[in-house]
Amino acid sequence: MSSTNRRSFLARSAVLAAVPTVAALADGTLAGQASAAPATLPDYAPIPPSALGPAVNSQGYYVGRVAKNLYWVTDGTYQAAFLTTREGVVLFDAPPSIGHNLQRAIDEIAADNGVSNRVSHIVYSHHHADHLGASSLFGRHVTRIGHAENKRLLARDNDPTRPLPDVTFENRYTLRVGGERINLAWHGTNHSPDNIYIHLPDHDTLMLVDVNLPGWVPFDSFNLNEDVPASMAAPAKAMTYPWKHYIGGHMGRLGTRQDMVVHQQYVADIVDNVRKALVAVDPTPYFAKYGNNAWAAVKEYQAAQVAYAAAPVIKKYTGVLAAADVYTASTTFIILESLRLNLGLGSQVHA
Ligand SMILES: [Zn+2]
């Protein structure tokens, strides 16, 4: 692969932008080492075609209509959305991996429809840099809206690429721009403390980022969710809203209500199998072998529980959700720890 091809390949694999070592690769500094990857890289099951969305253009993005004047943009790994109105464009998130392609996508749609291409508002789904790091590209004269905790977290992080929200709310806020309405709501912490439900009732659309990645299993370790029980409860809250189109913030296509059902079943299946593993896997051999090295015994015992619980889930979802064989084990470990620590499963009181 030429270095140009390697760079564009890495840019397309935009999820990698979140990983510092690969971000270093993308700027070429370690490019010479990319070919030194171990010869034993594992093979994974093919991605089901249902996980993939439309092809990106030569600039690396796809823009399409969600409903009426609501559009979505993807680079294949990250997603943003925007609403064109007579008073300007409302942008939802600004992932740095899409970056300057956000304005290009807006320009393309605005030119086709003869509407303003000026971004007047940016709604922040949550504070994470991988979804907001292109916010500063839109300058100072944009009204940014996020949860009150979003402002506190961004002030803490002090990142110039993510200007603080100008408008914050605690529980509910209706944004009205150019005759459009957008209902923002906070229903408690989930993936992050500030992650909000963005409902567009006139467009049959819900945007809830980093909870369900339609067509795919969650990213490593259950999407790195900061509150595991609340993240498991979030899909049911999402389903109480009326919507047909779901914008999950990730991967190459939009979601449906059926995608949410599949995601809920996947998580429920992991929970069921963790409960079985807590009963079925005998800790004795691990503690017998490692003696007073308690961490070695716990590590190997929990690895056996994870393997026991994850195997039937990987089998069931291979060909249904992409990358079931890649990340189900790490998500199973996080859910195992949550059931243990939050629900007290597997705890034994000393006699
Ligand atoms: Zn996030």
Automatic annotation (TrEMBL):
Residues 77-250 form the Metallo-beta-lactamase domain. Pfam families: Lactamase_B. CDD domains: metallo-hydrolase-like_MBL-fold. It comes from the Bacteria. The keyword Signal applies. InterPro entries: Metallo-B-lactamas, NDM-1-like, RibonucZ/Hydroxyglut_hydro, TAT_signal. SMART domains: Lactamase_B. Residues 1-36 form the signal peptide. Gene3D superfamilies: Ribonuclease Z/Hydroxyacylglutathione hydrolase-like. This is Glyoxylase-like metal-dependent hydrolase (Beta-lactamase superfamily II). It comes from Streptomyces pseudovenezuelae.
